[in-house]
Amino acid sequence: MRKLRQWTLNHPLQFVSVFMLVYFTWFSLLEKYAQPVLMIHSKLDDKIPFCEYFIVPYLLWFVWIAGTFVYFYIKSRDDFYHACRYMFTGMIVCLIIYTLIPNGLNLRPEITNNNIFSRLVDMIWSVDTATNVCPSIHVFNSIAINTVIQHSNAFKHKKLVHVGSYILALAICMSTFFLKQHSVVDVFWACVLGLILYPLSYKSAFDDSRESEYNVKAS
């Protein structure tokens, strides 16, 4: 385990690349072969209207996650490793749940509007099936990256960043409702998972002296 930690510290980008290769391979296999045995639904889902304009915060998720990782990698390796540990652990837990209990949704309505927002939603739906949804990785990662930002020393005195991160995380979570990408049940369990793994947002998995060394180099 210690050798693995040292390798991760010495090769952070390779570590992330290996993880993402494993994650996307696993997820793609589930998307292709897993047949839902549990359909997720709540009465509250039926009361939430579809709104294609929420595609904007939904897509901002990709920029936010990637941008924060790049910033942490350059400015704070400690936060970078916290984010990796928190998010990657949760993502693996979600994949295990999808594997053991394949689940899906039947919430997506027919898109009748013809505007750029509707076309973007249709594009997202075409590449992201309504399976493997509970817990929502989209929501979990939003919670995780926001939590790491709130704990980050890099943003310790930047209240505007803290507030903006909270607002963006909330908007992204709401977008999954209004785009019918997820049920409120998916979001609830993503929040539960985020709470369970919360200590990983600030408790380092690596030797403090080595982390300090990398933080000095990064600065």
From TrEMBL:
Record keywords: Membrane, Transmembrane, Transmembrane helix
Membrane-spanning residues: 12-30, 50-74, 80-101, 160-178, 184-202
Protein name: Phosphatase PAP2 family protein
